[in-house]
Structures are given as structure tokens and as C-alpha cells.
From TrEMBL:
Main location: nucleus
Lineage start: Eukaryota, Viridiplantae, Chlorophyta, core chlorophytes, Chlorophyceae
Superkingdom of origin: Eukaryota
Keyword match ATP-binding: yes
Keyword annotations: ATP-binding, DNA damage, DNA repair, Kinase, Nucleotide-binding, Nucleus, Serine/threonine-protein kinase, Transferase
Location of the FAT domain: 1-108
Name of the protein described by the UniProt record: Serine/threonine-protein kinase ATR
A Pfam family hit: FATC
Domain called PI3K/PI4K catalytic: residue spans: 230-539
Cited InterPro entries: DDR_Repair_Kinase, FATC_dom, HEAT_ATR, Kinase-like_dom_sf, PI3/4_kinase_cat_dom, PI3/4_kinase_cat_sf, PI3/4_kinase_CS, PIK_FAT
Length: 576
């Protein structure tokens, strides 16, 4: 790390994992239980980590932010203090990125997390100048105001709300808040050359968690875009939870739309976006991916509390369902209400679900290729967009199956009408949760007739299969790196896991130190098995290790099997 950043994704997260595991196993023992050799090893490890905090650039530590936050409540105090100091080191150089990343800590239901958040805030003030302290105060008020907007539930449910009148406190705070616009690009800090990397300031004497007040906060990005205003019109969506689309105006004059989601735990979305970001970095190092210019689209997810947050709005997206409905409607084959009633009646009256699905598919034969011809009329643009859709779809299918991503109905898969990229949204159904639904999911990912039709004349046998095999090969090669990234789920238990563990009898406020959740450990074991090729299919049936080609073939066969598709929930719409 002192000479370059080439292996930062492999080195730093793994180092933190080993240090935390070492702290859990050996450091809790008292001096009488430890041998001389163990005490010597513990001292060396602690000194090594403290030295690394001072010599490794904060920009390198930024890749470990999700891991630092998830393990901040480590049961060994020495380990927890080291993690806190690393966070403070990152804050010294990148205060805005760190503030947004730890926004949910101070509002956590976990008592110890809230206490640590208060300690971190005090330390941040000590290492900040007057301007930095003011931004820190403004940030706290800004987050509270955004949470109020997110959870606001008007009685009459108008289509638009006024920021100026309905959220005057938030509107008046923005011009002077000095807080960064939390878009994906702002968190992707560019890496400096190895010889120019900044060196962190030494620790304060006599206190391993102290940061000297004389060290000012230095933001290394002079072009940082801050929030200066917001558009008055706030769109209220028609869905059940009434999410709201708000638009911030940046100091560069550009508009940055976000979706404010209430009553939804976005920590899964945040962790998955981090996981995909790590995968993208690994993909970028693979020649086959660079040759195809293949990269999965990500967007920022900001968790403000355990039940709400904001997501970066991605323009030019339409749902796959809308694409299918458009092309069928243009041919006079589809009317939404009439078709839905006919399908439901046929479903209830047909004993064989496979026969039912075949009848529906005869009524609506695959037509998605015509949508691409209509949307991209120029031949070169059409070919590029269709290839982009096929390749990103293949990569998402493999990555989603590794994580047990379910609920891939037509409205959770989006298509970029400018580039053709596949973009996935709504990651609440992770870690094979689809298997425990009232109607269990029987396919590993969505590979229905119109999906295959959009791939071109070769279907799944062309670019799709090749990209799926390349993706799976890279995932297997970097199995340890991906598992280290996935371990953040283990030590930051999600709300539904926590409720399951406590059975509803113990309040979340009583939780203190980090807890290794059994459900999370099982999920990680399944991910590890799939990455090694020994757990196959939706049910993760044990098997001898399969080759990459055999693994992909097994998954494609499951995803396209009509018996499996017919057993899916009817409004998953397996006919599209």
C-alpha cells in the first residue's frame, strides 16, 4: 500500500478481516490464559495495525468504509478503537464521503452503535477547523430534515409537494449547508500516483484513539459539488409507501434527482451496491471484460436510518414490463386490464400449470426484438445497444444468483433507453429469501422468452453464454475478495434478520456488541458454495465441483424450464 494501490481491494479488506478475527479469538484472553508466544504475537499485530493507520493513505482506506462501519461494534475494545481511528483518518482527508457513509450510525437501534457515533462526532469536531465544524452541524440538520421529508405522509396524497412551503426548514438550510451531493461519482475518489499519495498524521500521544486538534480537515477534491438548493416540486409516487422524487441543485448548476424511500431498510441495497462496485473493479482488471466494455451500472444508496434512505435517480430508464407492453400494444395484441383478467381466469381453470403457461405464450409470442428495432433505428446503434443489454444481463444473472437475488419481476429490471444497459433495482429479496415466500421462486434469475428474444437470433447460445461464463470465471478467481466484501452482512445484521433472531421478544434497543447472526452465516456459506461450484441451482443442491461451463449450463436450464416458470407467482409474469 505504500508503493501503489493495485491490490488494495485484496489487501486492506482482508487485513481488516484477519485483524478482527484475531481480536475475537486471541485478544479477549487475559494475561494468565495467554502464553508468552501469544502475548508477543498480540503485541506485534496491534503495533502493525497502528503503524498501518499512519503510513497507508486515507484514499486507500476508503475502500474499506462498509467493512469499518459494519464491524465498528467489535466486542474487543482495542479492535474497535483501531477501526474508529481509521474512520477518523479517512474523515481528515475526505470528510464529506465519510459523513454520508456513517449517517445511519447515530440513528441506529443498536445502543452501542449510537454511542460510538457520538464519540466519533466529538473526535471529528476536534480534528476540524471552524468551517468543518459548521458543515458537520449542518449535515446533522440536513439528514434530520431529509428523514422528515421521506417519512412525510400527506392525508390527501397530492401528486406534487412544495419544498418551499411543506419543507421550509430543509429548503432554507440548503444554500449555506456546504454538504456534498451524494452521487456515485463523488464517492469514487480518484487514486493519486503512488509517489504522491498523502501520509496520515501520527496518532496523538497517550491515546490510541486521539486525533490532534491542530490537524485541519483537508479535502483533496477542490471540485467537490455541494448542495446549494432544490427544486420546489417534489413528485409523490403512486406506490403504497409513497416514495418521493426530489431534485437537488449542485454548486455546478446541475440538477441531481434522488428517490426518498420510507419504510424500507436500504442497507441491503447499500451493501449490494458496494458488492457490485467491488465486482466491477475486478471485472476491469480482466481483459475479456475490457474488450467488451462491460461494466454493471451502480448508483449511490444513502441509508439515513434503518427504515428509510435516499437513492440516486438514474435517468433514461424504463422497466422491462413497459418495453414488453409497448411492443405488444403496438401490434394490437395486448390490453393490460383485459389480458390480466383473462390470464387469471385461465390460471384458475387449468389444472396443469405448464399447459396454462404454454397457452399464454401462444397468445403473446416473443416480440422484444421489435422493440429494439423501433427504439434504435440506426443499425450500428441498434447492434451496440442489443449487445450491451445481452452482456449486462448475463453479468447480472451470474452475480445475482451468487447472492441469491430474487423478486426479479418485470418492474425490477430496467432498460437504459440511451445505451441498452440492464439496470436492476429493489434488492430487498436477497440471500434466497425468494425460497421462503408463499409461492417459492423456482428459477435462479429471469430468462423468459422476451429476454431471450432480445439477445438476437443466437438466443442464449451467443454473447449471453460467453459473457455469463466470463463473469462466473472472474467471480471464482476472486472468490476470497468477494467473500470478504460479503462479510459486511454478517456483522451488520439486517432488520428482518434481527427480528427473526429475537422472535419479537427483545427490543432492538437492547442490542449492544456485534453479533454473528446465524442467518447471515448460512447465507455466506451458500455464497461461498456457489462461488466454488459445489452448490447448484435455486435450491443450492450439493454437487461435485462443476466447471464454469457446466455451472452456467445448469443455471440456464433451470431458468428456461417451463415447468419451473409455470410454478412462479402468477404476477411475476413468466410469459413476458
Amino acid at each position: 500500500m505504500e508503493t501503489g494501490f493495485k491490490y488494495r481491494l485484496q489487501c486492506l479488506p482482508r487485513t481488516l478481516t484477519l485483524y478482527c478475527e484475531f481480536g475475537s479469538e486471541l485478544m479477549p484472553r487475559n494475561s494468565r490464559q495467554q502464553t508468552v508466544k501469544e502475548r508477543s504475537a498480540a503485541t506485534k499485530v496491534i503495533n502493525c495495525m497502528r503503524g498501518a493507520m499512519n503510513t497507508i493513505s486515507p484514499v486507500a482506506w476508503l475502500v474499506t468504509l462498509p467493512q469499518l462501519i459494519s464491524r465498528i461494534c467489535h466486542k474487543q475494545i482495542d479492535v474497535s478503537e483501531v477501526l474508529q481511528v481509521v474512520l477518523l483518518r479517512c474523515y481528515q482527508s475526505y470528510p464529506q464521503q465519510v459523513m454520508w457513509s456513517i449517517a445511519c450510525l447515530s440513528r441506529s437501534s443498536n445502543l452501542q452503535r449510537r454511542e460510538i457515533a457520538q464519540q466519533l462526532t466529538v473526535q471529528m469536531r476536534r480534528c476540524s477547523d471552524a468551517k468543518g465544524s459548521q458543515v458537520l452541524d449542518n449535515f446533522g440538520r440536513l439528514v434530520d430534515a431529509i428523514i422528515h421529508l421521506t417519512n412525510y405522509n400527506p392525508k390527501q396524497c397530492p401528486k406534487y409537494l412544495s419544498a418551499r412551503h411543506d419543507f421550509a426548514k430543509l429548503y432554507s438550510l440548503l444554500p449555506t449547508c456546504g454538504v456534498m451531493v451524494p452521487v456515485q461519482e463523488a464517492f469514487a475518489v480518484p487514486l493519486p500516483p503512488a509517489r504522491l499519495q498523502p501520509v496520515a498524521k501520527p496518532l496523538g500521544p497517550g491515546n490510541s484513539t486521539a486525533v490532534t486538534a491542530a490537524v485541519p480537515v483537508i479535502n483533496e477534491d477542490p471540485g467537490l459539488v455541494t448542495i446549494v438548493s432544490m427544486r420546489d416540486a417534489i413528485l409523490v409516487m403512486t406506490s403504497l409507501q409513497k416514495p418521493k422524487k426530489l431534485t437537488f441543485v449542485g454548486s455546478d448548476g446541475m440538477e441531481y434527482p434522488f428517490l426518498a424511500k420510507p419504510k424500507d431498510d436500504l442497507r441491503k441495497d447499500y451493501r449490494l451496491m458496494d458488492f457490485v462496485g467491488v465486482a466491477n473493479s475486478l471485472f476491469a482488471a480482466a481483459v475479456a471484460f475490457r474488450r467488451r466494455s462491460l461494466k454493471l451500472r451502480t448508483y449511490s444508496v444513502i441509508v439515513l436510518a434503518e427504515d428509510c434512505g435516499i437513492l440516486q435517480w438514474v435517468n433514461n430508464l424504463v422497466s422491462f414490463k413497459s418495453c414488453c407492453e409497448e411492443v405488444y400494444a403496438n401490434e394490437g395484441m395486448y390490453r393490460r386490464r383485459d389480458f390480466a383478467m383473462a390470464v387469471k381466469k385461465m390460471y384458475d381453470s387449468t389444472p396443469s400449470k405448464r399447459q396454462w403457461l404454454e397457452k399464454v405464450m401462444q397468445t403473446l409470442p416473443p416480440r422484444m426484438h421489435k422493440w429494439w428495432l423501433t427504439r434504435f433505428s440506426e443499425p450500428a446503434t441498434w447492434l451496440a445497444a442489443r449487445l450491451s443489454f445481452t452482456r449486462t444481463n448475463a453479468a447480472w444473472c451470474m452475480l445475482g444468483h451468487m447472492l441469491g437475488l430474487g423478486d426479479r419481476h418485470c418492474e425490477n429490471i430496467m432498460v437504459d433507453t440511451a445505451s441498452g444497459d440492464t439496470v436492476h433495482v429493489d434488492f430487498g429479496c436477497l440471500f434466497d429469501r425468494g425460497l421462503i415466500l408463499e409461492v417459492p421462486e423456482m428459477v435462479p434469475f429471469r430468462l423468459t422468452q422476451n429476454m431471450v428474444d432480445a439477445f438476437g437470433i443466437s438466443g442464449v447460445e451467443g454473447s449471453y453464454r460467453k459473457c455469463a461464463e466470463i463473469t462466473l470465471q472472474v467471480l471464482r478467481q476472486h472468490r476470497s475478495t468477494l467473500m470478504t466484501s460479503a462479510e459486511t452482512f454478517l456483522y451488520d445484521p439486517l432488520v428482518d434478520w434481527m427480528n427473526a433472531r429475537r422472535g419479537g421478544h427483545v427490543a432492538q434497543q437492547e442490542a449492544t456488541a456485534e453479533y454473528e447472526n446465524p442467518s447471515a452465516k448460512d447465507a455466506l456459506a451458500t455464497i461461498d458454495g456457489r462461488l466454488s461450484g459445489t452448490l447448484l441451482g435455486v435450491s443450492s443442491a450439493p454437487s461435485l465441483p462443476l466447471s464454469v461451463e457446466g455451472h452456467v449450463q445448469r443455471l440456464v436450464a433451470e431458468a428456461t424450464d417451463k415447468d419451473n416458470l409455470a410454478r412462479m407467482y402468477i404476477w411475476w409474469m413468466p410469459w413476458f
